[in-house]
TrEMBL record:
Belongs to the ABC-2 integral membrane protein family. InterPro entries: ABC-2_transporter, ABC2_TM, ABC2_TM_bact-type. One of its GO terms (cellular component) is plasma membrane. GO terms for molecular function: ABC-type transporter activity. Residues 121-354 form the ABC transmembrane type-2 domain. This is Transport permease protein. Pfam families: ABC2_membrane (PF01061). The chain crosses the membrane at residues 20-43, 160-182, 203-233, 239-264, 276-298, 328-351. It is found in: Cell membrane; Membrane. It comes from Bipolaricaulis sibiricus. It is a multi-pass membrane protein.
Length: 356
């Protein structure tokens, strides 16, 4: 036990001195949260509404006023003329412009706002359709009401993005523990020197796993806290399930790192392969954009990636998405089984001299 404690302390110091690994494990997720938080965090939320600049060309506002009065998605800002409206539209003081002469609607939209353009266009279509119905003396046959499901109010994509980044952080913490740290030690023959000491390979692996588990847990918690404090997003974290999942996910990622280390001929190339694999999974696992909008063949690829299921489970334990309990147990159990099952294989890899 004393020897294991010494190994843990040594691996902790090694981890803290490796600035690149430290940055990508601890700080990179927070950088992601800051970037996407400033892009999306302020634009989403229950009180987020589009700013609609309105110019009434002839003062007639009866039908339009009735329509805008029931619109919950817009804040109306009156303008005296079109030139002032276009100026503020270009400066993004307003999101959408509307000219109304009592008979026709003319919407003005900034074409450079690519990300929000579709939402603004849909908003304009909705207003135009309702004005058209009211002018005919009709009413919409049905009204759509937004109702969130889940144990907390998932108010926007940023709420789903943060757990995705946390899942990716857990993946990298485990993946690079093997494909980065252990393969480097093997290539530099540090393992050969260690193995002639009374230290057992199992103790070394346990020490590395313990350090990476601690780093992964700390990285996910700090990412979550940063998102809550800086952008006011809410989560309902089930801490027992969260802790169990982070342990299983980190071990499962170490198992994936073991597979990469065994498949790559040169140990030094394992980290490059792991980096490529993690970046592909980052793009295709539904972290940045929904899987549902992908082409069918990419959806099939996404379903084959472990990070996809890690993201789903992380969203479940942070309370922003529902997931059947049996499915969560299956994902967590599978990750734990992969890590625990490949641990003996990793032990043999550490002591084997065949791959250098």
């Amino acid at each position: 036990m004393i020897g294991l404690g010494a190994l843990v302390r040594t691996q902790t110091r090694v981890f803290l001195r490796d600035r690149i690994t430290l940055f990508f494990t601890m700080l990179f997720p927070i950088v992601f949260v800051l970037i996407f938080g400033f892009v999306w965090g302020g634009a989403e939320g229950p009180g987020a509404r589009a700013r609609l600049g309105l110019v009434r060309l002839d003062g007639v506002d009866d039908v339009l006023a009735e329509v805008l009065a029931v619109q919950r998605a817009v804040v109306v800002i009156p303008y005296g003329d079109r030139a002032a409206l276009e100026r503020d539209l270009a400066k993004r003081e307003v999101d959408l412009g509307l000219l109304w002469d009592g008979r026709s609607l003319v919407f003005l939209q900034d074409p450079t706002r690519v990300q929000e353009g579709y939402a603004f266009a849909e908003l304009a279509r909705g207003i135009a359709a309702e004005v058209d119905l009211r002018q005919q003396g009709l009413a919409p046959p049905a009204r759509a009401e937004r109702e969130n499901i889940g144990r907390t109010v998932a108010v926007g994509w940023f709420n789903l993005l943060v757990p995705g980044i946390m899942a990716f952080s857990t993946l990298t913490a485990g993946l690079f523990a093997v494909s980065g740290r252990i393969t480097q030690m093997k290539e530099r023959r540090l393992l050969d020197r260690l193995l002639v000491t009374p230290m057992s390979p199992g103790a070394l692996l346990m020490a590395i796993a313990a350090v990476r588990l601690g780093a992964g847990f700390l990285a996910t918690v700090t990412t979550l806290v940063a998102a809550v404090l800086l952008f006011g997003v809410r989560f309902e974290v089930n801490w027992p399930l969260f802790s169990a999942f982070v342990v299983a996910a980190t071990l499962g990622a170490m198992g994936l790192g073991t597979v990469i280390a065994l498949l790559v001929r040169r140990p030094g190339s394992a980290s490059n392969v792991a980096n490529i694999a993690s970046q592909i999974m980052l793009l295709l696992s539904g972290i940045y954009f929904p899987i549902e909008i992908m082409p069918s063949f990419l959806r099939a690829v996404s379903r084959a990636l472990p990070l996809t299921y890690m993201v789903e489970a992380m969203r479940y334990v942070t309370g922003v998405a529902e997931m059947p309990v049996a499915r969560f147990a299956l994902v967590t159990g599978a990750l734990f089984a992969v890590g625990a099952g490949l641990f003996p294989v990793l032990g043999r890899y550490v002591v084997s001299a065949g791959r250098r």
